[in-house]
Amino acid sequence: MKYISTRGNAPELTFEEVLLTGLAADGGLYVPKEVPTFSAEEIASWRDLPYTELAHKVLYPFVEGCVDSAALKTMLDEVYSGFGHKAVAPLQQIDHNEYVLELFQGPTLAFKDFALQLLGRLLDYVLERRHEKVVIMGATSGDTGSAAIEGTKACRNVDIFILHPHGKVSDVQRRQMTTVVGDNIHNIAIEGNFDDAQDMVKASFGDQSFLRGERKLVAVNSINWARIMAQIVYYFYSALNLGAPERAVAYSVPTGNFGDIFAGYMAKKMGLPIEQLIIATNSNDVLHRFMSKNQYEVRPLKHTITPSMDIAVSSNFERLLFDLYDHDGPALAELMARMNAKQDIVTLDEDKLAKARELFDSQAVDENETIATMQQVYDETGYLLDPHTAVGVKAARDCRRNQQIPMITLGTAHPVKFEEAVKRAGFDVPALPHHLADLMEREEKLDVLPAELATVQGFIAEKTFHD
Ligand SMILES: *Cc1c(COP(=O)(O)O)cnc(C)c1O
Predict the structure, then answer these.
(1) Which one of 109, 159, 297, 399 is most buried, by most CB atoms within 10 A?
(2) pTM flag (> 0.90)
């Protein structure tokens, strides 16, 4: 499988190269040159497969030529046997024909484990073969950092540095990062806000000369194709469990960077009968405003009770636009320049918008509606949703087109991670799952650094100088 840039002016890469690259050289994102497709008969023949075997069927075409089939199988077995539920991605029914897909059974209790656990293994596998080592650098306000740390803690060829804003991450989320021990793991608390941390990461990717030796930075945010890829599997798994491919299914996806929902769109392109895909956003609703009004306008970030969806710009949307533009890289490069010039309101040609609306519905859900949905579902079923999942359920109920088709909301996190919202909804915070029961007693390891690029880069260079 070869990968191409959405802006049409960067070299084609293999899976291995894409895995080790962040943005393409032309500023675009990498996508598969041809999407593998499966017939209904083939998909039907996978109905009885457990999660890891299904994952192998779905993922192997994307990595073929770079990752050996047996090695992929071993990695998948290792990753998903570490999840806290034997079904890996169990379905929870919340009403007639309505479900939550529980994607929070992994080590850090959010769906990001599905991809980042696998990413860590894939990185180590290719780096071992290349006799190379890399540095992961990322900024987080929560879920990504802990999932990336858990995913790479056993990697022999990866040092990981995760920056978070000092004092501005919840205790559970911080401890999920700072209590993981390993010589290759470094938590940096920046004396500043999330944007300061993010800016330092961006600047470091732009000029990597501060790194010693042959080291390079690797991105673990969802611009990395391997993350999207791993997330395609649970769409197949849940749809097959509900009668696909004979029966169609629908999904509502709590969305920030458009990564998780893009994986659903990929599953549909690969042959899964997905009748409806709903983009569910919080009040950071750039995508919903765009879909409903054909106005793409970047607005300042709002902090909400669903922090993992707090984004101003939705980076993976470019991957969809690439399809809407029939893979015309130069035209897309021009469009992206206008979209990123934040003063502008950008509109799409009507035919392209019509195509987008055929593929997706959208809804923005505010904090009061989120809280009310948590309460409503609890009253109806006794099941407590995390606030992000509640955004998805609300959008699912408002936008549903066909009651006969099973509606599945992606359950993106466990409610225990989002204490503020749970309390606001009037519930007690649930107990931590068994494997994290002593999280609040574990020893923490972190370094507090000023929000100065040179200091942070000097720290990283020094700590990676052990090879
Ligand atoms: C990351 C995250 C999201 C948003 O996912 P995207 O792929 O960025 O759209 C939603 N909910 C939770 C709990 C998350 O951690």
Answers:
(1) 109
(2) yes
